Each structure stands twice: as C-alpha cells, then as structure tokens.
Amino acid sequence: MIRVLLADDQALVRAGFRALLDAQDDIQVVGEAGTGDEAVRLAGELTPDVVLMDIRMPGVDGLAATRQIASNERLHGVKVVILTTFGLDEYVFEAIRSGASGFLVKDTEPAELVQAVRVVAAGEALLSPSVTRQLISEFAARA
Fold first, then answer.
1. Angle 39-40-46 (CA atoms, 0-180°, nearest 5)?
2. What is the distance between the alpha carbons of residues 111 and 3, in angstroms, rounded to a whole number?
C-alpha cells in the first residue's frame, strides 16, 4: 500500500485528489495539510511514502516545506511530488534543488497523477511532459 499525504491550501483540490487516490487498490491517503508547516509536521508524524505538495500555500510555501522534508534524515524515504498550476522554469529548477522527486502541473490527467504516485513511490523521478520539454529546451540553449 502506498501511503500519501496531500498538501494544498484549497480544500476542494485536496478532496478531489483524495477521491481519486483512495479509489485505487494500492494507494491510501493518510493525511491532508493546508499549509507548508502542517505538511512538514504531518510528514514527520505519518511518514507517508509520497507527499503531493502544492507550491503556493500560506506561510511556508511548498518548496520550503519540501526542503525541510528532504533534509530530515528521519524522513529520507518520503518522496515529494510538487503540484502547481505554473510550469515556470524557476519553479521546476527550485523544486529539483529542494529535493522533489517529481513535478506535475495541475492540468495533468487523473490517470497520470495516479501513475506518478506509483512511479515516485517506487523510487523513480517524474516530470510532466510539458515540463520535460521546457527542461530539454533550456538544456539545449545552454549547451
């Protein structure tokens, strides 16, 4: 069973993710956080396999919360997938530097989100296709 923590400041978004993920036989949502601080606290208490983390939240944002989770030795097995409505390069690069294992834009298809949770829980990294295109273009421009 893959244990997931949802971190998003919008309750409706969390409810949608919960309904989608809890409908899977191999995924269980173990908690919900509305702020980055709460996400860090719940990650420490619940030690989920995957945290779906929104970037923009009040107080501590998702990137700072990801850094705190990734730097906590006790939580080294917790994988973070950043979710955002913005596929901006600066967010992608900062998410990777912060220790995120994945980066998805919120217009991702439901089946892709479910697959992303499974992929990241298995220890792999994952980026939305649109984000991958941006990174390849950026890499090619710098090369």
1. 80
2. 17
Q: Which two tokens stand for residue 6?
A: 């949802």
Contact 139, 96 (CB under 8 A): no
pLDDT tens figures, 55-109:
989 889 999 999 999 999 999 999 999 998 765 667 788 888 899 999 998 888 9
116 touches 126 (CB < 8 A): yes
What is the value of pTM for the model shown?
Answer: 0.91
Closest to 101 in 3D by CA, of 59, 53, 58, 35: 53
> Which parts of 19-98 are beta strand (E)?
27-33, 50-54, 79-84
**Cα-Cα-Cα-Cα dihedral sign, residues 86, 90, 34, 98:** positive
Output the CA–CA distances (angstroms, integers) from residue 32 to 8, 10, 21, 51, in the order listed.
8, 11, 13, 10
Q: How distant is the alpha carbon of residue 72 from its chain centre?
A: 17
Give the sheet arrangement for strand 102-105, strand by strand.
27-33, 2-7, 50-54, 79-84, 102-105, 126-127
